[in-house]
Amino acid sequence: MDRAVVVLDAIVPVALLIALGAGLRRVPGLGDAFWAGAERLCYLVLLPALLAVGLATADFAAVPVVAMAGAIVASLVAVGAGLVALKPLLAIDGPAFTSVFQGGIRFNNYIALAVAVGLHGAPGVPLAALTTAAIVPTVNVMSVLVFARFGTARPTVLGTLRMLVTNPLILACAAGGALQALGLALPGVVVAAGRSLGQASLPVGLMCVGAAFQPHALRARPGAAALASAAKFVALPVCVSLACRGFGVGGMAAEIALLFAAMPTASSSYILARQLGGDAPLMAAITTAQTVLAALTVPLTLALAA
């Protein structure tokens, strides 16, 4: 199947769910209290279930774990550090910067997994799982640290450590990674229940993004949205491509690492912005804009990398 068609097949449903959330926001009875509860459910239950079960059950056999993970983590740290270095030059406040930061480093793993399987079939699954395992803990720790520094709440060092060790997404990554490292298998019923909860995080999270989308947030800070998208669609893919060469990662593994790097930011970015004191309207605007832009940028990135 043509690569552009595979990408569109994965992105269009995501955009439709965001649009559905925007429409539902106007339905009587689905006001602020409803969406606040849905966001909290995603943050505390659905997203952690997705991460924990996904990492615990991933098959990493015959995958270049160290080299591929090293290339991805090094790239994320480099782009994140670059954004922080640019902060003094940006005419935006701290909460808005947290949205730019998340928009520059986070990724939509749902789209990436769908495209990876569409392009490579079953052989792409373990590589996609490893990429997810490398990215998810890294971006969550980096994001929590940025929220601690630039969000509305400015905790002490002890408070920042508490934010890290009590963050549901980081705890879920730690639990899933520990089970994977120890070779412990979850009971089948637990895996089935966890996967069901994780699958629910996609539609619920994206509808929350749509419900929170405010076009004026994008119009008010077009430069912030442009910087986040430049980091996400240009800087991060370039860094991953160079890092894969440096770490000796090639072929399908390098393409899938690049594919994930080129993804738009995820609905979890908005959930964290709401829960940790970021600029949630700007985050929703960046998420929506990047999802639309990805229909053009992802096929282009894959074509240039081919």
UniProtKB/TrEMBL annotation:
It holds the Pfam family Mem_trans. It is found in: Membrane. The chain crosses the membrane at residues 6-25, 37-56, 62-86, 129-148, 169-190, 234-262, 282-305. The keyword rRNA-binding does not apply. GO terms for cellular component: membrane. Keywords: Cell membrane, Membrane, Transmembrane, Transmembrane helix, Transport. Its main location: membrane. InterPro entries: Mem_transp_PIN-like. It is a multi-pass membrane protein. Coiled coil: none annotated. The keyword Transmembrane helix applies. One of its GO terms (biological process) is transmembrane transport. This is AEC family transporter.
